[in-house]
TrEMBL record:
<keyword id="KW-0067">ATP-binding</keyword>
<comment type="function">
    <text>Allows the formation of correctly charged Asn-tRNA(Asn) or Gln-tRNA(Gln) through the transamidation of misacylated Asp-tRNA(Asn) or Glu-tRNA(Gln) in organisms which lack either or both of asparaginyl-tRNA or glutaminyl-tRNA synthetases. The reaction takes place in the presence of glutamine and ATP through an activated phospho-Asp-tRNA(Asn) or phospho-Glu-tRNA(Gln).</text>
</comment>
<comment type="subunit">
    <text>Heterotrimer of A, B and C subunits.</text>
</comment>
<keyword id="KW-0648">Protein biosynthesis</keyword>
<dbReference type="InterPro" id="IPR036113">
    <property type="entry name" value="Asp/Glu-ADT_sf_sub_c"/>
</dbReference>
<feature type="compositionally biased region" description="Basic and acidic residues">
    <location>
        <begin position="85"/>
        <end position="98"/>
    </location>
</feature>
<feature type="region of interest" description="Disordered">
    <location>
        <begin position="48"/>
        <end position="98"/>
    </location>
</feature>
<dbReference type="InterPro" id="IPR003837">
    <property type="entry name" value="GatC"/>
</dbReference>
<keyword id="KW-0436">Ligase</keyword>
<protein>
    <recommendedName>
        <fullName>Aspartyl/glutamyl-tRNA(Asn/Gln) amidotransferase subunit C</fullName>
        <ecNumber>6.3.5.-</ecNumber>
    </recommendedName>
</protein>
<keyword id="KW-0547">Nucleotide-binding</keyword>
<comment type="similarity">
    <text>Belongs to the GatC family.</text>
</comment>
<dbReference type="Pfam" id="PF02686">
    <property type="entry name" value="GatC"/>
</dbReference>
Length: 98
C-alpha cells in the first residue's frame, strides 16, 4: 500500500492552487493513497502481449457518405428572411467598422 504524507498532499494542493484545511489534507492523503494503489493494480495486470486499444468495443464509422445532393436555391433560402439585401440575409449590425 502506497502512502502519501500530509506534506506531499499539501505540496500537491499548493501546485494546483487549492486551499485545504488540516482535516481536508488528512482525509485527502488517505483517499489519494487508495487511488494510487488502484492505479498500481491496473499496471500489474497489463501484459506486454496485449496491444493497447482506444476502446474496448470495435467501432466503425457510422456517418453517411459525402454525396452531392440538391439544396435550396438562393430564392428559396431567402424567401423566409425578414429582410434581404444584395441576395443575402440582412441582419442588424453588431460591430462598428472604423
Amino acid at each position: 500500500m502506497s502512502s502519501l504524507s500530509r506534506d506531499q498532499v499539501a505540496h500537491l494542493a499548493n501546485l494546483a492552487r487549492i486551499e485545504m484545511t488540516d482535516a481536508e489534507l488528512d482525509t485527502m492523503a488517505g483517499e489519494l493513497a487508495v487511488i494510487l494503489d488502484s492505479v498500481a493494480q491496473v499496471g500489474e495486470v497489463a501484459a506486454d502481449d496485449i496491444p493497447p486499444m482506444s476502446h474496448p468495443m470495435p467501432l466503425t464509422n457510422v456517418t453517411r457518405p459525402d454525396e452531392v445532393r440538391p439544396g435550396l436555391t438562393r430564392e428559396q433560402a431567402l424567401s423566409g428572411a425578414p429582410a434581404q439585401e444584395l441576395d443575402r440575409f440582412q441582419v442588424p449590425r453588431i460591430l462598428s467598422e472604423d
